Structures are given as structure tokens and as C-alpha cells.
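assembly run, all chains below
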Amino acid sequence: MSVKDKTQVVGFLGPEGTFSELAARAYFDNSTTEAPEYSSWRSIKEVFLAVSQQHCDVGVVPVENSSEGAVTETQDCLDDSDLRIVGEIILPISQNLLVSKEHADTPISKIVSHKQSLAQCRGWLKEHYPHVQLEECESNAVAAEIASTHKGVAVIASSQVVEPYGLMIKSEDIQDFLHNSTRFLLLSKYELPSLSHGQSDFKTSLVLRAENSPGALYGILGPFALLGFDLTRLESRPSKTVAWEYIFFIDFLGDYQALEDSGLFSQLEAVTSGLKCLGSYVTLFDGRSN
Amino acid sequence: MSVKDKTQVVGFLGPEGTFSELAARAYFDNSTTEAPEYSSWRSIKEVFLAVSQQHCDVGVVPVENSSEGAVTETQDCLDDSDLRIVGEIILPISQNLLVSKEHADTPISKIVSHKQSLAQCRGWLKEHYPHVQLEECESNAVAAEIASTHKGVAVIASSQVVEPYGLMIKSEDIQDFLHNSTRFLLLSKYELPSLSHGQSDFKTSLVLRAENSPGALYGILGPFALLGFDLTRLESRPSKTVAWEYIFFIDFLGDYQALEDSGLFSQLEAVTSGLKCLGSYVTLFDGRSN
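ok done. output:
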């Protein structure tokens, strides 16, 4: 039994048509069991709450883009909540410039999109539309709706929104970096039985707090290096309790069992003032297992 | 001769009324020499360009907030450009809910602000205006202008914009964390003579690239720990060339001379594939020297 088999309702960062919905469907639509229900939530925080309050079995939120970096709201929510990370899916992100079919010939006077999408196309926009006003909005789907009803307004979004909003593609694959991908996390209130427990392709996520003293971070990284664990990511975030103090998010290759068996966990406990395991999980690439 | 004495034109992240302008004025207005001219630029990237193309002597941009974390656009620009960090000022950030004086009694139906300001007041907004629509816009000053001309629209901003936009304070000091401060960097095309060369309160900023191999970051932090340098910050950013590879921004206490004399620089060169010093500089707190 795995994450896929146990899941009836999947919440995602909405509205419909976002990359989070694409990620959720890519993860669950290949499931051999019955397709789950999907529910859309207005913010990352609301997805966390919906899972926590059991309106959903699993929540899907973005956590990092390969060119734009961390989604800090997701990290802050991970630290605050007691949800577990039970899976991860990496989705290639292709951005497109879309306009209303009806007003396709109107010159573009404004381009709207989510800030992450605008940031991913910054270079392209500067080259092709240097003088057009850019406007951030809360999601690409909301932007698509605006573009569908306002003459001269284009949107940057996935091709997913073309059909439902009566849009057409004006320029395709406009992201600045071809390797543009986003990592999405699957969150659950309970530890779900893993897809392939014991295999070496598990990843484990930790949040660590350390005293603000010289060499503190070096002391944290020591046990990983000396025991041969490969860090895939280290991200610092403000502690939110004391100005200019930080907490650290660390991902490494290995499962929870390896963390305990190797002595890593107890060695980390000795050099941190707080240590929380967010989950051990397997990464899927665009719906395919690694 | 110091940064203050040599500066005739100061560019800042505009428009007028932003915290960047407050920071620029707090830094230069206490100067003993003639007050500089100030010029406003539309984006962080434009401030970098303006300094690089010598439209300004110094540029002022935000780099980190104590509760919301890094301003990633500034970090990416620092890596791309050849500007030097020649100073830093830390400004306490007080956020306020402001409404148009004229329509002060109209119920609030929408709150607009820059995303960082909205994020800094997330908890307060949820408690006091849970059902009011929130809208991001490019700066608090632009938001102030919208609020001044639209009935029922409030803005989150510094009290600085009250006067010029005909607003009034509805709620004061609404940021979620009382210690809310932002660090602003001063950028220059040329290394300016330092304010207090040789003193111990210098900070130095580096960007480092390392091979993507187990223990690589541990290897980078080793020389700092073993030579007794105190890291004040470590931030990872996507390398932008290979997906899921990172570069590291490191700040530590000490000046460039100490970096060379101690052997730290040559030790770092041995464990990195790229090493760039962004500058050594002194921190001012709200216009006062530390």
C-alpha cells in the first residue's frame, strides 16, 4: 500500500489550472487505483490547513524552482505545521505568452502573471516586450482570466489554461532557462507507508536550529560529511524569533532508517538546539518514478 | 574620505516613498558634506544598471528582511554584476494600514501592497481582515497612490507616504514581528575608501561555487571555522546553469585584509570552483554607526 493507493482527496494550490494542479494530476493520474477527487485552495497556507483539518488526505504545494529558488511560504509552513512530507514530484515548467483568441490582433499593453512566472521569463520579457507594463497577480489562472476578458492584456502561463479561458499561444517556451523545473511536495497528516522502503533513492528532509555561534553550521554539516550522506539542498530561513538568526532546511539522500542506524540523528541532536524530521520520501519525475 | 564624502548622486529602488529611499536618506542625510541628489529607479536591476552605467555614484537596494528573508533579485544581480558593496544600513521597518483621508469611513474591501509588506503582516491581516481581498503590487508607493484614488482600498506602507498621498493611519505597527528590520546594501562601481579600515566591525561578502559532490559545502565552511571567522549569513541560490545546483552567498565578520592575511582566501580557492569577493564594508544601524 502506498501514498497513491491511500489517497481519496487531493488538495492543491489553486485555482484550477495552476502548475500545482498539473503536478497533483501527474502524480495521481497514473495510479492503478481509482482516481482521487481534487480540491483547490487559495493559498499555500490554506493547503496546509486543509490537510491538517482533514478536508484532504494529501496536499500538493510547490517548494522550489530550479531557476528561481525556494518558495519561502512553503518552507515557513513546513516549520510551523506537523504535516509530513510523503512524496515529491518534479515537473518541467514550460511558460508561454498567451492572449485572448478574440482579441489576438490587439497590441499587447500589459502582461500579467504570478511573480514566479514573471521571474522565470525576466530575460525574455526584457528582450521582446521591454516597454510593456508587467503586473503580478496571485496565480497564473487568475491572470488567464484577466487576459481572457481584457483587450491588450497577455498572460504568462502553462498551455493548460489555453482551452478553459479561450486563449491562444502567441509565444511558446519563453522561460529563460531551458532546464526550468519545479519541485512539488506531497503533504499528509499521517506518515503514509512509503512507495519503496529500503531503496537507496529516498530523500529525507530536516529542519534544524543551532546556537548563533561561530562554527555552528560547520558543526551541523560535519556528521553528514563524515558519515557520507549526500546533501541535495541547504536553505536558511529567518528564525522569526530573533532578528538575523536562522533555521536550516536540509535535504539529503537516504531514508529515515539510515538516519537512525548510522548514528546521524544522535550526532545531529548533539550539535543542534532543535531537530525535526519532515519526512522520508521518493522523488517522481513528471509522474515517472526515478 | 569615505563613501559619504564621495557621493553626489544616490539611486534607490523607487518610486519615491519606498523603504529604500528612507534607507538612502538615513545613510546620507547625516553626512557632514553637502547632501547628495537622489534618483529613483523602477526595479532592483535598474538600480544596478544605473550605477554600472554611472548615472549614479551609489545605489541603494534591499537585500534581506529579518522576518521574510532574502531579496533574491538583489542576490542574483550581485552575482551577475561587477559592482562592489561599499556599505550597509539596517532600518527598522514599521508597517501601517493606511487609508485615504477623504474616504476614511468607507469599509475596506481591498488591501494593496508590495509582496514583502503583505508577507510581513500576514498574521495581523488574517486576524483583523480575514475576508478582505489582498493584492500585490510593485511597490508600497504605487499601492499608496492606488489607495489615495480608490474608495475602500487600504494600503500597507511606511508612514512616509501618509503626507504626499493624502492618507491617514488606521492601524500602526502592524508587522507580525516586532524586531522587523531590513538590510539595505550600498553599491558602487568602484571600491570606495572604507569608513573605518582595519576596525573589527567590518563585514565581507563572498559568492562561492563548488562542485556538486558530497561534503562540498562542509569543505567550504571548514576554513572559516578553523580560522575562527564568524559567519553572519549563508544563503544558497540556484546556479542558473544546471538544475538543482547551487551557489552560496556567505557574509562573515572581518575585512578583506583579514581574509588575505589569515590564509582564508587561498584555502577557499582550493575548495571552490569559483570565488568572488563582493566587498568589505561597515554596517550602520538606522543611520548610526554600530
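The longest helix of chain A spans residues 216-227.

The mean pLDDT of chain A is 89.

not gonna interpret more than that til we talk
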